[in-house]
């Protein structure tokens, strides 16, 4: 139920949907003759476009998440390497029989580096189909193709293909490593690390954060940024979704604090 509610909520809550909703409300108010109120609503729509597309708001919002867990020196011994899904475009890859990586592809390439550093550690990938309408192959299937193509022996791969969100990643992966001793390295996007660590801690799993896929330098201040409004919109959307996810997970008791830290 939590999975479906999160997907339904995010559809109208994402920045682009908010902008379109404000525009639609403004048009309706204008048709109804409420022109002064319509101008206010349309002005809010324009202001939102300006903030999310032409300023560094997204970077400012995402920085506290990305800076929360700095990458530390790799431990000498680990029990396993855990990689969370979210780095593949499985619908496209499954249709074409190839592995398509998205902007979070660092999760996969970092896993390869760690797999070579720890040749005896199993490589655990967690990811099913994270959409309400299931289509295409699971992320685990895409990951299997990718890792085999990169020379990882199949016997090293442990694939969990049922998780649809981060909560299920933690729950289902915890069972796979219950009998293993020592810390596991957790690989996911830096902005996603606080929520992920909080969930794994709640499951009693000792993880070493290995953040990748940074979307900011970590030092941006707020200001105008007109170079790439599409990228600004994307980063803002990611940051807003992650903050909402943290609040929702804390409210539901899935994590013990709003912003888990080291």
TrEMBL record:
Record keywords: Membrane, Transmembrane, Transmembrane helix
Pfam families given in the database record: DUF218 (PF02698)
Leader sequence residues: none
Gene3D superfamilies: HUPs (3.40.50.620)
Residues passing through the membrane, by range: 12-32, 39-62
Residue ranges annotated for the DUF218 domain, each copy included: 81-245
Name of the protein this chain belongs to: YdcF family protein
Natural source organism: Devosia rhizoryzae
Lineage, uppermost ranks: Bacteria, Pseudomonadati, Pseudomonadota, Alphaproteobacteria, Hyphomicrobiales
